[in-house]
């Protein structure tokens, strides 16, 4: 059997030249390594512009690069500023497939590691939280665009669940392109369309059980209970991430993927035990974050989250703590913040229908019986292309 290092031999080497039909790209440096392959910075030979490539080994058991590519292309069509454009793709026979995309800066895991106290200032956490929330709303927004050409009708459809919301899957833009105050969403390998493709307007009914997808630390209760995920679950993971940024660490930070049951118990305790909730929300705006947690817990599978309400809670926390819109963010302390200040809408463009004939609106009523959860990370030293202690996406079921 090949060791993982041997298996990595198929991945690009520094200085290697990669060809596509459109151009040639010289590999500069490794930016990140994940479960399915690796990401590198490259130099486009035709104009010396820098880009990123994401590679997936030809032998990868589960191919996810196509999903990455489809989601990013869809995001370009809805004109969201929070996604990287994909410009090119190709494969190197028997070694790897790759896509060429916009190059951005450090991910939010690494940016937090750069902080001397291991957490973001409240202003940075809230500004970043608001941008990530908007990007999630964009990913969830259902857009249908049916084009009838003379040959065949083509349907463009957008509306995905991310299912792996975590700090390593968001990054700031590059300073060189003056985009370092904008947050980009990354890594769509675990995405799932929640609308039935054939009709384009019905929501898929939940499966009776679904294999675990995501990262234990940030996984929503539904994922941990092997239930099918829905829009509320991305928001639940978002909240764990935002709490981690603000507090510097979640109560279950020391538990690893194989301790999934213990992490699940912790996440339930956050809901049921006042002292665990207190610990969870250490250093956080308690009133507003508790409100968000309780709200997300009321949502059912079919609910359209009220992104505007969640945004309102974030904004309320900022105002209550005298944080101004132009206060600098931690990774650019000298300049006033100039990142986007978008306000979320209602998260949908068309009215979805649910299998069985009920409309989404009927399902959107809050159901106080349903629940949710969160997760965290710790500081450590950095190595090129590998973030220490960053929680890895779990591709397969963890063996007990
Ligand atoms: N377009 C890009 N520009 C700059 N850096 C990027 C880009 N895309 C990804 N990265 C970096 O590479 C890391 C891994 O990327 P991504 O999450 O897409 O891959 P992955 O293989 O699915 O990783 P994991 O399994 O760790 O989630 C990111 O955390 C980020 O730091
Ligand atoms: Mg990732």
UniProtKB/TrEMBL annotation:
<feature type="compositionally biased region" description="Basic and acidic residues">
    <location>
        <begin position="362"/>
        <end position="378"/>
    </location>
</feature>
<feature type="domain" description="Protein kinase">
    <location>
        <begin position="25"/>
        <end position="310"/>
    </location>
</feature>
<feature type="compositionally biased region" description="Basic and acidic residues">
    <location>
        <begin position="389"/>
        <end position="400"/>
    </location>
</feature>
<dbReference type="InterPro" id="IPR000719">
    <property type="entry name" value="Prot_kinase_dom"/>
</dbReference>
<protein>
    <recommendedName>
        <fullName>Protein kinase domain-containing protein</fullName>
    </recommendedName>
</protein>
<dbReference type="InterPro" id="IPR050235">
    <property type="entry name" value="CK1_Ser-Thr_kinase"/>
</dbReference>
<feature type="region of interest" description="Disordered">
    <location>
        <begin position="356"/>
        <end position="400"/>
    </location>
</feature>
<feature type="binding site">
    <location>
        <position position="63"/>
    </location>
    <ligand>
        <name>ATP</name>
    </ligand>
</feature>
<dbReference type="GO" id="GO:0004672">
    <property type="term" value="F:protein kinase activity"/>
</dbReference>
<keyword id="KW-0067">ATP-binding</keyword>
<dbReference type="GO" id="GO:0005524">
    <property type="term" value="F:ATP binding"/>
</dbReference>
<keyword id="KW-0547">Nucleotide-binding</keyword>
<dbReference type="Pfam" id="PF00069">
    <property type="entry name" value="Pkinase"/>
</dbReference>
<dbReference type="InterPro" id="IPR017441">
    <property type="entry name" value="Protein_kinase_ATP_BS"/>
</dbReference>
<dbReference type="InterPro" id="IPR011009">
    <property type="entry name" value="Kinase-like_dom_sf"/>
</dbReference>
